[in-house]
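User: I'm putting together a teaching handout on how multi-component assemblies are represented. Below are the sequence lines for each component of a complex, exactly as they appear in our records. Could you produce the 3D structure of the whole assembly as structure tokens, so the students can see both representations side by side? Please keep the chain order the same as the input.
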Amino acid sequence: MADLSALKASVLNGKRVVAETLAREALAAGVDPVVVMKEALIPAMNEVGEKFTAGEYFVPEMLVAAKAMKAAMEVLRTKLVAGSFTPAGKVVIGTVRGDLHDIGKNLVKVMLEGAGFEVIDLGVDVAPEKFVEAAKQHSAQLVAMSALLTTTMLAMPDTVKALDAAGLRGKVKVMVGGAATTEAFAKEINADGYGADAAGAVSLARKLVGAPA
Amino acid sequence: MRTSLAERLKRGIVLLDGAMGTELIRAGLPNGKVPEAWLLERPDAIGAVHAAYLAAGSDLVYTCTFGGTSIKLRRLGLEAQAGEINRLGARAARAAAGEDRWVLGDIGPTGELLDPMGDLEEIVAQAAFAAQAKALLEGGADGIVVETMTDLNEAAAAVRGAKEAGARFIIATMSFEGASKSFRTMMGTTPEQAVTALAEAGATAVGANCGGDPPALATVIARMRAVAPGLPLVAKPNAGMPVHEAGGDVHPVGPDQFAALVKTMIDAGATIVGGCCGSSPAHLAALRAILPS
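Assistant: Of course. Below is the structure of the complete assembly, with chains in the same order as your input.
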């Protein structure tokens, strides 16, 4: 019998090799990969987010947990029948034009993946038209932008305007975050929400796509 | 002619400089351009910032090489010029400081995450820090400052790199959050862990710079002082957190208020003080005015 609670614990504790092995064992025991995701991996990452918010976990613990989760996911992917698992939503993410800082953006990315979102990562120094193009191409529900610097966050309203101009705002919600940004700034530039940290970004993304918390 | 920094510290509080980045933005650094690239194009603008701080009374200036590790410069396609950029940065600061005042070669984070969080091996990071420190010392720096670190392993690797390059005076400061984050760095390091590990790695002075809550630095310094009674401690706070306004960003803490803020850190045990983002020569002049001469 596959031990899904041990798998969940291995992710929570950032034990990558253990997580990989237990995921393989679960598949060998005939457990549906969708069940493994829904009962072990996603709940583990939810708990990681809760511990981070509570100040029990910090960025390093969150990152090693995400790495363990991804390793287990890779094992499942080989057996995941196309269409059997519906992502919570599709997110296009990037650090805005002129800004090369990606640690925060990468954290949000792994936490969104851990929550079952499909994430299209455009990297750093992403121009407004690149966000628009990717949102269109992937039919994304969310565009997530990051900026560390007060000078580069000014590229965020440009992206919002470009999405407007492309007629995408009805389909795509915009979330922003990063050291320079604030809730008030998000409102001012007409974004749909602000995430104070990676865990906050996940709750916000769920709210924006209407997924259960 | 200047003495060693260790000698100078025996005679009282050392005044560092203020912000470089926000001053360069004020001087016209274009959006998206990094200060290190301006060392190649506009060394005069960087020299002018150093000169303004020295005129305001700074004993010691940091070079404009915060993003100057080969790892960080690689993202800008400037990796091949890393040595040149760091030597230029040290020369610009030395030219402004002359032979009477001190220059520390500035080393910031690589921008990558160290293993096991990310893919950067500690030994690779240390080698890049050592190469940067070597170029800074060749350019005329009196020692090295490692600053704005959030990962203790990366900070310690930078200190060891600086030592390996032959630096005899090494400051290491990390960026701490406020009370809401229990005064830890983004990566969860406490002030006590930082001061203990960085002194052990070979730092001559340890402290805090930048960060999410400037007044919190006084608490950080007091906590470091409690576990490191004899160590020189460094406080280099922001002039408040930037407020975005229509005409550009404003750091809300003015010169006199800034001097009062730093005074709380001196009272908590800081012996080397200055300003980070948003502080200007006027802030440093106000701080100089409250220090015993």
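A couple of points students might notice: Chain B is about 45% helix and 15% strand. The beta strands of chain B are 14-15, 60-62, 102-107, 143-149, 170-174, 205-209, 233-236, 243-245, 248-250, 272-273.
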